[in-house]
């Protein structure tokens, strides 16, 4: 199937509106042509994390929808009330809305967003996947989800300390919670457990983009995930920057890799 020469998308009359007027935390829709690309931000973050990537893909003619995962972009207390299945529902709702305007869909996410992209791709028809800084079960350092949930009752929040981002300006400007709800950490661990068993079921061609010096998700993690896929997949390694690959020093290479993957028709599913 040709992934780049398809019927033109219906143009929305206006961008999607949200309960917040903050451009960093609001979902965004950029109308264009085929394919339609759903972008999913990472844990503790907001849609502004994926907006520059979205604008880059839109400049290549794609339609882009950057969703906001439940509990994000507001206050940490909201995130403490969310379950991982809520995030899965958010992604599915985003795909359904994008599907009204585009025939062919791709999905990309960073960190938590990458894990969600892989999981949802086993239940929803998408043609391409890009995972940036894709985490797996090892991201929770082997602590079982019930233990994390138990600790969360006694210690609801812990401070977020430090960042491995090399680009200081990007680090200062991004939206991110400074407190981590341990309940949400337990939910992430549950998602990773659920994803583990589904990796061989993933069918769409998948591109992994990962920083060699990612201190949050070590390189061996994404290699283990990729090895379990039965689908066609490739890995692109970035030599500069840390976990936030789409905002950090090698962001242009990350964006270009995603654009090439979504526009390349060789591996599109029929």
Task: Give an account of the 3D structure.
α3 packs across α4, α4 runs parallel beside α7 and α5 (145-154) packs antiparallel against α7. The chain has a single domain (28-263), classed as Alpha/Beta hydrolase fold, catalytic domain (Rossmann fold), CATH 3.40.50. The strands form two sheets. It has a seven-stranded mixed beta sheet, sandwiched between helices. The protein has a two-stranded antiparallel ribbon with strand order 6-7. Mean pLDDT is 88; it is low at 1-21. The protein is of the alpha/beta class and 270 residues long. It is built from nine helices and nine strands. The protein has helices at 51-59, 76-79, 84-99, 112-120, 145-154, 168-173, 182-196, 219-227, 251-263; strands at residues 28-30, 33-40, 62-66, 105-110, 128-132, 157-159, 179-181, 206-211, 233-238. 34% of the residues lie in helices and 17% in strands.
């Amino acid at each position: 199937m040709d992934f780049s020469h398809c019927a033109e998308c219906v143009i929305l009359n206006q961008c999607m509106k949200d309960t917040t007027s903050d451009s960093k935390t609001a979902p965004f829709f950029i109308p264009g042509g085929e394919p339609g690309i759903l972008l999913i931000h990472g844990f503790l973050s907001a849609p502004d994390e994926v907006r520059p990537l979205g604008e880059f893909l839109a400049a290549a003619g794609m339609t882009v929808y950057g969703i906001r995962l439940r509990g994000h972009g507001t206050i940490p207390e909201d995130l403490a009330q969310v379950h991982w299945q809520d995030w899965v529902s958010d992604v599915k709702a985003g795909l359904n809305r994008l599907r009204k305007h585009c025939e062919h869909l791709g999905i990309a996410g960073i960190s938590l967003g990458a894990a969600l992209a892989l999981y949802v791709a086993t239940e929803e028809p998408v043609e391409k996947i890009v995972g940036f800084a894709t985490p797996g079960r090892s991201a929770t350092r082997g602590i079982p989800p019930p233990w994390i949930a138990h600790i969360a009752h006694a210690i609801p929040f812990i401070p977020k300390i430090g960042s491995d981002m090399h680009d200081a300006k990007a680090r200062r400007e991004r939206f991110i919670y400074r407190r981590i709800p341990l309940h949400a950490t337990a939910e992430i661990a549950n998602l990773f457990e659920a994803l583990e068993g589904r990796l061989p079921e993933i069918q769409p061609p998948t591109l992994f983009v990962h920083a060699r010096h990612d201190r949050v998700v070590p390189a061996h993690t994404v290699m283990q995930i990729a090895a379990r896929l039965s689908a066609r997949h490739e890995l692109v390694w970035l030599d500069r920057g840390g976990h936030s690959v789409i905002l950090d020093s090698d962001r242009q290479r990350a964006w270009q890799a995603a654009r090439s993957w979504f526009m390349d028709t060789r591996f599109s599913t029929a």
